Amino acid sequence: MLEFSRILVVEDDPDGQVVVSHVVTQTLAMPVDVAKNAKEALKFLSEQANAYRVAIIDLSMPEMDGWQLLSTIRNNPATAELPCVAMTAYHSSRTREEALKSGFVGYFSKPIDTVTFTQQLKKFMG
Asked: Does the pTM of the predicted model rise above 0.85?
């Protein structure tokens, strides 16, 4: 297995899953794993933590939201350094500030601007 060769998309909305995974696979030519909730994302990460270059996480999900997922990721030594990007339909400058302060490396409001989104993801992946 190649290390850091995939992107994890954590999104509960089926349309959002399609849009984000399509943008990533088409513009970055990288494979994507889609988790429909935080529990599924944690399962992916526990099975193959070294596979991901970045995680794109929706902030508003049922059961465990994106904020809680980020905290869990940061508290696990195997995933603590994984770049995580916040995504939300409930955009405000305050939400953006809080996301960046809490440890997300980037922030995008939905609907995403594909050009900016792609450029920023490239930066986050080094």
From this structure: yes
